[in-house]
Structures are given as structure tokens and as C-alpha cells.
Amino acid sequence: MRDDHRPEYVSLLADVAATGRRLTRDEIEQRREAGEEAAREGRALRELIGGHLAAVRSAWPEQPLTRRTALDLLAAVEQSVDAFSDGFERAQRLAVRQEEAERREFIDDLLYGRSDLGRTAERAERFGLSLSQAHAVAVARGPKAYTEADPVPQQVERALIGRFGDRHILLTTKAGRMVCVAPGDQPEVLAHFAKQAFAATGGGQAAIGRPQPGPRGVVHSYEEALGALDLADRLGLDAPVLHAIDLLVYPVLTRDRQAMEDLVRSTLGPLRSSRGGAAPLIDTLTAYFDSGCVTTKTAQDLNLSVRAVSYRLERIHRLTGTDPADPASRYTLQTAVIGARLLGWPEKEF
Predict the structure, then answer these.
(1) Which of 62, 116, 256, 260 has its CA 20 to 30 A from that of 25?
(2) What pLDDT, on the 0 to 100 scale, is given for residue 6?
(3) What is the spatial distance between Cα 112 and Cα 110, in angstroms, rounded to a whole number?
(4) Which residues fall within 8 angstroms of residue 105, CB to CB, at 6 or more apart?
(5) Which of these, 15, 14, 12, 41, lies nearest to 28 by C-alpha position?
(6) Order of strands, edge to edge, in the sheet holding 135-141?
(7) Are 196 and 155 in contact (CB under 8 A)?
């Protein structure tokens, strides 16, 4: 309790001891307002309750009190402490909500680049980031959408901070995914984040963007991580951790969409005439190229016989005029297969 409030509180208790009255509604509201003010000043509630008890000792009459008078005084103390604590807690809850709102606004500005970059950099220090250096972003997803209050993100945060401390790390959730922003020269932080996210989600997937400088760099790294997860969906990549730097070839391939569509149509279009359509043959080519063009491994991955895989590869050769086993023509066919997977062909027509 502030010293300038204590004399009036002592006087209030002395009056209660002398008259036996209860606190008025205005007096209770004054105690509540005093609690709010103390919370805004950052005072400790334990210290403040101690101040209330000290005021009781100061207000206690020297002559012996009747039991009734003592009970009246204690009832007034109970009322005042309850009102004071209610005001204190109310102010704290308001401060927490305001802090959360400001943090969410900052995170949106940081990840989407919606605010002035200079202002974002200034606010970043308040949340433990120094945007004068490069940062990288990792995004992790699991079988469900998460918020910061969910047990899974909290478990990941405890594991990360338990190992590295704060280290200028920002952990949050966005669009149901867990997000970690860390200095670009500390790749071990994001690697550990990905490992812990995989464990906490029961086998989720994480993607790590490249380190990029400045406030705008966080946006770019975040977009790279999201792009890697999108590629994983379209290409069927099931690795627990994806690195955007390893996937740069795919955005390059689709940068000229019209050219890629033409390549897919001209190279793979004839596969539609096959019984069962193009999809099974595309799956065969995908598994074949992923296996390093090893027929036996392709058969194992597709749960087919080697003879069945060989037949499919021969049919692809006959229909397209391109031999998947010929190194000279394989690149065109493999590029077309990658393009088909990225564009969703043949399920999606273009």
C-alpha cells in the first residue's frame, strides 16, 4: 500500500473500531480503485497485504475491545482487503489482455510486414528480438490446429527455453501452426524446435526458412517455410523436417506456369490413353525417380512386382516416346512429372 494512502486507511479503520459501522459502498470502491492503481504501479500484492495488516495494528485501540467491536473491525478489514485485491487482480487481467493484444499485433506485423519496418524493429526489442541481425523462421504443424494456450505449443516452448534460455527467440502460433523466430546464426535453435514439435505432435512436420536480414527478412523466411509445407502437400514429401534451401528448384520450375503446363501436356498427355488413366503411371514415374531409378526399390515402394513396374515403364516409353531409363531423355520426363505434381495434374485440368 502506498504510504500516502496508509494514513487515510488507518483513520478509516479507527472510525470503524469506534463506531462499529460497516464500510460504505463508496469506501469499498475507493479500496478497489486503490488496488487498481497499485497494480498499474507494479507493486507486489504480498507487500500490499502486509501494509493492510500494519494499518490494522496502527488503528487498533489501546483500550481492550469488546468481542463485537473486534469482529466489526476485522469484518471491515476483510471487506477492504477483498475490494483492494479485486481491483488489483482486475487491473492485472486488463494489463495481460492488453499485452496479449499488443503481442498478437506485433506478430502479425512481423510475419506479414503490415507495419512500418522501423516501428516493427523498435517494438521487436520489447519482445526479445533484435532485428538488426538476420533471422530465420520455422513453422511446424500437427494433426490439429493449435493456439498458444494449447498444451502442445507450451510443451515445445518449455523444451526450447529449457535448453537455450530466451536467446532472443520468439515462439507463437499462427493459423493453427507453431512458429519459431530465431537469430539466423543459431540454426541449432530451429533444429531443436523442429525436433520437439515432431515429438509433441506425434509425428508432425516442420519447415525451416533461410536466414534473411532485417524486419523484411523475417517475412521472407516465414513465407519460405510456409511454401515448403505447401510443396510437401503437393509433392507428397513426408520428411519430418524440410529446409527451404533444399527446395528452391521447385519454385523456379513453376515460375513460368504457362511453360510448365505446356511441358506437362506435351510430355505426359499421351498417358491419358492408358487403361486406368494417367494417374497410376505418374505414380510409377514418381516412385521410380524417387528411388534413384532402381526398379526393385520402386516395386517395393509401390507394393508391386518388379515385372509389373517394368511393364508400366515400357508402356510409358511407348506412349510418350521417352524412355525413363535413358539418362539422355530422363531429365525432361522427370521435370514434367515434378510439374504435374506441383500443378495437380491430371486431377486438375488446365
Answers:
(1) 62
(2) 66
(3) 6
(4) none
(5) 12
(6) 170-174, 177-183, 135-141, 205-208, 241-243
(7) yes
Give the CA angle between residues 153, 158, 161 to the nearest 5°. 120
* CA–CA gap between residue 90 and residue 32 (Å, rounded): 9
C-alpha cell at 44: 507486489
Q: Which is more confidently placed, 3 or 333?
A: 333
Tell me the whole-structure pTM to 2 decimals. Answer: 0.68
* Separation CA 197–CA 139 (nearest Å): 9
Q: Which among 218, 214, 172 is positioned nearest to 193, based on CA atoms? A: 172
Tens digit of pLDDT for each residue in 212-223? 998 889 999 999
pLDDT 10s digits, 24-56: 898 889 889 988 888 888 888 888 888 887 887
Contacts of 124 (CB under 8 A, 6+ apart): 106, 110, 130, 131, 215
Mention every residue, 6+ apart, whose C-beta is less than 8 A from residue 232. 205, 207, 238, 239, 242
Give the number of residues written for the chain: 350
Rounded to whole angstroms, how far apart are CA atoms 10 and 52?
A: 9
Strand 135-141 with 205-208, pairing: antiparallel
